[in-house]
From TrEMBL:
PANTHER family: BLL0505 PROTEIN, PROTEIN-METHIONINE-SULFOXIDE REDUCTASE
Assigned EC number: 1.8.-.-
Domain Oxidoreductase molybdopterin-binding: 244-374
GO molecular function: oxidoreductase activity
This protein's record includes keyword Nucleus: no
Organism: Actinomadura macrotermitis
Protein name according to UniProt: Sulfoxide reductase catalytic subunit YedY
Top-level enzyme category: oxidoreductase
């Protein structure tokens, strides 16, 4: 009978369409978490961008060896773990997003515009990032370019939004509510969901947790010679290089070289343990053997701070060549690799010769080398 009465009460009917979780405290805590995760994604994203496209004055160190696997792992796995946070935040605040009238003053209009841009760009960044690591490109634009430029829009809107909300959020999280149980339960559920996403993907970058790597699209340890392959030799249009294969060393050299596989094998051989860290977030470690790039460059009379470009047999494709700056080619770990995990390189890993260098995005670990050009 009590329930029946309540059902006829207009105020109670109104309440059925609301939840006590659409409240400022939940929004504030989720906002803080999102602020931290988007800032982390922005910084690690800039690192990845500028490692791949350094301005002239910028030189990246070649150590620590696995630094890029950490920054890019944070970027991708942190981004995935942000998805539940963003969905929860949007659900929490959606009654406000559709509040009427749309604005009450010029200042309020500017505030809401920032929120609109923030919501749009956040959804865009997380969706395109997710599609990219799933190798699904349903959009008509270039992913890295759009993802890069949108990040500035997002951060701009985030700064405005934080400035607008700072005082409210601070007041909200500093006071103790009387009925905190619901909120705490909701926030813990959201945090646990993020945690599960992170735990089931982090194994693709962090080997000790590889067994938990259930959600990530790539698993280190699978593929020829124990390493995953995105671009096969066939897809790159590279056919097995025959006995006529040569590695040429050209450009601003003391003397040009044209080295056969036997010539390379006759040089001092070294074995290094280095990771391939793809921009997509996965990292796979291998034991590589081959010749130090610096030994070959010294034999060609190159020294000092020269910049070097390595070129692939692959005809087209964005990753057919890459720059190797002085700290990288001087590093004793940087090899012209001929072997992987105790065998000659498999065709899909860049046979007969590929670059492998420390602290470098996977896209710059060029496969199927044919030429080293000194700039
Ligand atoms: N020539 C050439 N080298 C290349 C690529 C490529 O497409 N062409 N892909 C790069 C990328 S994106 C990564 S992550 C590493 C490892 O890629 P794989 O998984 O295709 O071997 O090789 C790099 N070297
Ligand atoms: Mo990659």
């Amino acid at each position: 009978m009590v329930r029946g009465t309540a059902l006829l009460n207009p105020a109670a009917i109104g309440r059925r369409f609301t939840s006590r979780l659409h409240d400022e405290r939940v929004a504030a805590w989720l906002g803080i978490a999102l602020g931290v995760s988007f800032t982390t994604a922005f910084v690690t994203g800039l690192i990845s961008h500028f490692m791949q496209h350094p301005p002239d004055w910028m030189v990246w160190p070649s150590r620590p060896v696995g630094l890029y696997s950490v920054t890019q792992g944070l970027h991708v796995i942190g981004g995935l773990a942000t998805i539940p946070l963003l969905l929860a935040k949007l659900w929490t605040v959606y009654p406000k997003l559709f509040a009427w009238p749309p604005f009450r003053s010029a200042g309020h209009a500017a505030e809401r515009l920032a929120v609109l841009v923030l919501v749009g760009t956040s959804l865009f960044q997380l969706a395109t990032g997710l599609f990219n690591i799933a190798y699904w490109y349903p959009f008509p634009f270039n992913f890295p370019v759009a993802h890069y430029w949108t990040s500035y829009l997002l951060v701009g809107a985030l700064v405005v939004h934080v400035a607008n909300q700072w005082a409210t959020a601070r007041r909200t999280v500093m006071t103790r509510p009387e009925d905190g149980v619901w909120r705490r339960g909701f926030l813990l559920t959201v945090a646990a969901t993020s945690g599960v996403v992170a735990l089931t993907t982090v194994g693709e970058a962090f080997r000790p947790l590889a067994a938990l790597d259930l959600l990530a699209p790539r698993r280190p340890g699978t593929g020829p010679q124990g390493l995953p392959v995105n671009k096969t030799a066939q897809a790159a249009g590279v056919t097995a290089a025959g006995p006529a294969w040569r590695l040429r060393v050209t450009g601003r050299v003391g003397r040009e070289l044209s080295l056969s596989l036997a010539d390379l094998r006759a040089l001092p051989q070294h074995t290094v343990r280095l990771p391939i860290s793809c921009v997509e977030g996965w990292t796979a470690w291998g034991t590589w053997d081959g010749v130090r790039l610096r030994d070959v460059l010294r034999a060609a009379g190159v020294s000092g701070g020269a910049r070097v470009r390595v070129e692939s047999l692959e005809r087209g494709g964005a990753y057919r060549s890459s720059w190797v700056d002085a700290p990288h080619w001087h590093d004793e770990l940087t090899l012209l690799a001929l072997g992987l995990n105790g065998e000659p390189l498999a065709p899909d890993h860049g046979a007969p010769c590929r670059l492998i260098a420390p602290n470098r995005p996977g896209v710059l670990q060029t496969k199927w080398l044919t030429e080293v050009v000194v700039a």
